[in-house]
Amino acid sequence: FFYKTLFVLALVVLVSSGHAKRSFHIDWENDRFVKDGESFQYVSAGMHYFRIPHQYWKHRISAAKSAGLNAVQTYVAWNVHEPTPGHYNFEGDFDIVKFIKLVQAADMALILRVGPYICAEWNFGGLPPWLLGRTSQVRTADKQYLLAVNQWLEVLAPKIKPLLYANGGPVIMIQVENEYGSFGCDHDYISLMTTFFQQYFGKDVVYFTTDGKRDWELSCGITPPLFGTVDFSPADNVTEILARFRRHQSKGPVVNSELYSGWCDWYGQVHQTTAAEPLGATLNKLLSLSVSVNLYMFHGGSNFGLSSGASDYETVFTPQSYDYDAPLSEQGDVKLDKYWAIRNVTEKYFPGNKMPVPEDSKKLGGVPLKLTLAGILTDQIGPDTLVKKCPLPHTMEQLGVFEGILAYEHEVTPGQPLIDVELEILGVHDRAYVLTDGSFVQVVRREEEVKFNITAHKTITIIVENMGYIGFSKAMLDYSAEYKGLKNVTVNGCIWTHWNHYKINVTDTSRTTEQISSVYPYKAKSWKGKTLLPKGPAVFSGEFVLEKSQLLDTFVNITRSWSKGYLLVNRILIGRYWPDAGPQYTLYLPGVWLKEGMNTISLVELQSYMPAENSIYLTDKPFIDGPINPDA
Asked: What is the pLDDT of residue 477?
C-alpha cells in the first residue's frame, strides 16, 4: 500500500508540474501515427511564415483551423535567416519561434520542413546564395556545403528543439532535405544529413522525406530508416500512385505532403487556376484511406523583396505573387469554393467544427498616385560602389554580389572612340541594359545571342539584373547554367578588356541627378515596340497621404505604361514588377506597412515609361491574371 501510494503521489506531482511525457511516433506495423497513445491522422495547411507579414500570422492560422485542419506545415527558409555568413535574423516576419507558438496556441500540430533545401519557388530554393562564393556543389556531401549546413543547424536547432512535441511544443515532424529524388540519387548523402539532424534536434521527433510520384523519384528519395512521403495533385490517379508508393515503402502510415490546391505562376505564362471539386474529392478519398494530407498551399502569400526564384534550365521566373490559387488568397481572403470543398470533407472525418468562416478584410482603393523622375540608376556608379577593377568581366558570385544589380563599365581610351562597332555580350544572366556614353541603346535577355552596333566616346555601361536563382533541378549544380552577371564582351569579334564592377542598390532611391531636365532631350531608342528610357534605368518617386481609417491592405496597380522594375513603399522593397510580361499587374501591399499621414512610393524602372493618366494607382482588387507576353 505504501509503494502504491508513493507511485500515485509521484504521478500526480509529475502531471501537475507539466512534465507528463508527450509522445508522437510511427506505428509501422499498424500503418499509423500515434500521438499520446492514440491513432492520429492530420490534414495540414501549407503556409510559409516568411511569405506573410507577421501581424497576419494569427489570422492565417485561424482561417486554417476554421476549415477543419488540425495542423500547419511550413518550410524554413535558411536564406532569410542568414542573409550573409554568420549574421542571423529571427525578428519580425522571420520570427519562426513566434509563428510556431501561434500554431500551438491554436491547438494545432506543426510539421517543419527544415530542408535546408526547400524549393518553394523561392530564391535558390531557400539556400543562401552566398554559398556559391564557396562551392557550387550544393545538396551534396561537399565539405564546404556540409560545413555551412552544420553551422546553420547549430543556430537553428536550439530555437526549435524546445518546441518539439516531446518537449511540450507542437512540432511533430521534421523534414530532411526536400524532393531529393528529383535532384540526385545519393542515399549516403541523405543518411549523413539525417545524422546531422539527429545530432542537433535529437531523436524525439519523426524525421521524414518528401518526393515526387514517379518511380525514379521515390527510389532515389526514400532513404530508410527515414519515413518517406509523396507529392501529387488532384488530377492524378490516387490508387495508382499509392500502389507505386507502397512498392518503395511497404509499411507505416501514408502521407501526401503536397496535395496541390492550385499551382504557381511564372512571368510570361497564363495565371494558373484549378477547380475546387477535384480538390475536395481527392481529399475525401485520401482521408477515407487513412492517408494524412498537407494542402500545398492552403495560403500562398507573397514573394516580397528579392525573394522570388527561378526554375530549371528553362529559367522561368516567379512573380511577386504566390497566390497559388489557394483556398486562402494572397491577401488572406477566403475563396469560398475551395474553402468549402475542404471544410465539407474535414467535417466528415473531424466533426464538431463550430468556427465561423473568416471575413475578408476591408481593402483600400481609388487612390491615384503621381510619380516624377527622381534620379538615374547610373548615378550610383562611383568610388563608393566600386567592387573591383578586372581585365575581364567577373560574375556576381566571383565578386561576392548575390542579389540585385551589378554594373559593368568600360572606359573608352581617350582619343580612340569606338565608332559604329559591333558589340556582343556573352552569357547574360539574367538581363542586361546597355548604355553608351550614358544613353540607353539595348536590352539583352538571358542567354540571348544578339549583336548590335554602337558608338562610344567615353563609356560602355552594362547593367545586369539578377532576377532570382534557380531553385529546382540539377541546374542548381551547373555553374554554367546558374551564375549571375555576364561572361564576356566582344567588340568586332575581339574580347574586350578593362572592366570596372559596381554594386547597384535598388533600394537606394535617395540619390538624384543635378540635371534631370537634361534626360529627355536625348533621342531615345526603342525595344520591342516601347521607347527606352533615354539615360537608362531610372527612379520615379512620389508621395501620398492617408488617414488612419485608410491604413488597409491594398494593391499597387502598375499598368503597361511601365515595363519592368522594383516597387518600394515607405522604403520597403515590396518586390519586382513586370507588366510587359504579365500575368501580374498589381502588387499586394499590406496595410501594416502604410502610415498615417505622408507615405512615399518609388519605382525603379529598368526599361521604359510612357506617361499616361492613371499609370499607377492603389486599387482594392488584385489583378494577377492579366495579358501575357512570353517574348518580353
From this structure: 87
Q: Determine contact, residues 53/592, Cβ cutoff 8 Å.
A: yes
3 state SS of 487? coil
Task: Identify whether 424 is a catalytic site residue.
Answer: no
How far apart CA 335 and CA 300 sit, in angstroms, is 13
Q: Which parts of 258-335 fold into alpha helices (H)?
A: 276-288
| Residue 368 bridge partners (DSSP) | 617
State the pLDDT confidence band at 6, using cuts at 50, 70 and 90: very low
Closest Cα to residue 78, out of 47, 113, 110? 113
Q: Is there a contact between 604 and 378 (Cβ–Cβ < 8 Å)?
A: no
- pLDDT, one tens digit per residue, over 394-451 is 999 999 999 999 999 999 999 999 999 999 999 999 999 999 999 999 999 998 989 9
Residue 594 makes CB contacts below 8 A (sequence gap 6+) with: 364, 546, 550, 551, 552, 554, 569, 570
Cis peptide before 610 (omega within 30 of 0): no
Q: Note if 448 is an active site residue.
A: no
Predicted confidence band at 20 (pLDDT cuts at 50, 70, 90)? low
Query: Which of the residues 179, 403, 465, 605 is marked catalytic?
Result: 179
Q: How far apart are CA 352 and CA 298, in angstroms?
A: 21
Question: Which letter, b or e, does each residue of 335-348 get, where b requires 16 or more Cβ atoms within 10 Å of its Cβ?
Answer: beebbbbbbebbee
First and final C-alpha spacing in the chain: 84
The percent of residues above 70 in pLDDT, for the chain, comes to 95
Catalytic-labelled residue, pool 82, 177, 217, 258: 258
- Is the Cβ–Cβ distance between 361 and 485 less than 8 Å? no
What is the rounded distance in angstroms from the CA atom of residue 217 to the CA atom of residue 222?
8
| Continuous H helices in 471-604 | none
The residue assigned the cell 537608362 is 536
Strands (E), 177-272: 206-211, 227-232, 255-260
Q: What is the pLDDT of residue 479?
A: 75
Confidence at 128, pLDDT banded by 50, 70, 90: very high
**CA pair distance 157, 161, nearest whole angstrom:** 6
Report the C-alpha dihedral over residues 564, 568, 572, 575, rounded to 10 degrees.
Answer: -20
